[in-house]
Amino acid sequence: MSTNLQAPSSEDLRSTPSRSSSVRLGHTPSPLQSHRQSFTETLRGHPPSPRATRQPSLSQAQLQDLLNNPPTNGASDPRFVGRDWQTIGVGELCRAADIRWVEFDSGIEDATNLLINSGAHVLLVRHQKDEQAAYATYDYRDLTQYLLFATGQLQPDEEHFPIFTSLAKKAQAGHMIPLRDAKSLGNKEPFMTLPSTANLTHAIEVFGGGVHRIVIVEEGTDNVIGILSQLRLVRFLWENGRSFPTLDPLYSQTIKELGIGSQQTISINGDRALKEALTLMNHEGLTSLAVVDNESCVVGNISNVDVKLLTKSSSAPLLDNTCIHFISVILSTRGMNDGKDSFPVFHINPYSTLAHTVAKLVATKAHRMWVTDSPSPSISASPSPSTPHSLSQPSVAHPPSHQASLPQSNPPFLPLGSTPSVSASALPGAQAGRLAGVVSLTDILNLFARASGLHPTDPDERRRQRRRSSSSSMVRGSGESVRSSSVSSLKR
How many whole angstroms separate alpha carbon 276 and alpha carbon 292? Predict the structure, then answer.
């Protein structure tokens, strides 16, 4: 015996559950249902939401105090409670897990892949794999310079023309370019070492003079045991600040009161091409650059670390697009990686406290904060640059065919057409204010050193030396005057 299974008809679905009843309720309107209430009428007469009358949990004064004196993340490290920070050894702040090795004979592509995929900010360079001694470093500034060379943005002077030509021929022939040759393009970061037994006073004096990292070695040997960076030291002093009474009172003072930072800044208009920004950073020896609109208001930031988004050959067109477009790519990529929207928290104002400034630097892992001449919003994270879809995608000229090959890596990358191009003039830059100065990790550590009776090198002199070194490098920008056409140098 077979059974026929049939789907219920629309008539069945409209009928009542009781098939024996001949009355169809759907055709017998109730007096109470003769008028269907609108959504507005449904809400009319309902009590208001308690949120409308709820008092804020913090007063404006309390909120401002929280912004000026933000809490640290977690408790102080018990190993350092009650100790004078000046007696702590640099080796106590190092971790062997941070060390990433590469050899001079390694290919530039392999080194770049390791730099990006490991999440490290620097690789230590040695001669042989069985060595534990480092002789140089490879970081994102080196990558930026090689990227500019590979895309034809840098040209050699007469003295170094043969070396440059030889390197270009290797790249065009598809031969591996060893890291040794790539490093010959220039070296911006001084290579500094300290024994693990050296006190933090030695490190803070070096950092306060403008050096960004120190390689820590075993006492009496060249064997590397770790790397100490400016950011790690600032984070350590911030998280354990209450244990160090010499430094703790400084955090409640404002940037203006402390007189730190530089009022001479270098920026680039957001409508300029990305390749001009990278060339400028390389020429001036900068690790990051403020991006401003037509009113000199800060709308973004580009750092050397961001070049990891340019290491695929498919990303080469980004170099000819605008800086604003690249900022939108950076923020979109961060959003995909973090699973949430990303906002550029990169500015403070002269009345921001040192605690507020350091908390931002530590939270964002940035090396500097741009100082604007108007207060930041009460919620310090400024909105990301708007990307109105009504703006059309401009045509992009691809780099010349004679370029050297780019190091191939696998960073997350958005296709060029996935993010609309935005003009700097269309951005609400006034939210951040006009660019008035910059406060870096170097400035903060220089302050700490001087407050402790030390005598660090003048960081401004170090900056001038770095720029002179960059300007006298074997390579220079291919543009006639990138600085004059795209840079706003503010001296106030």
Answer: 14
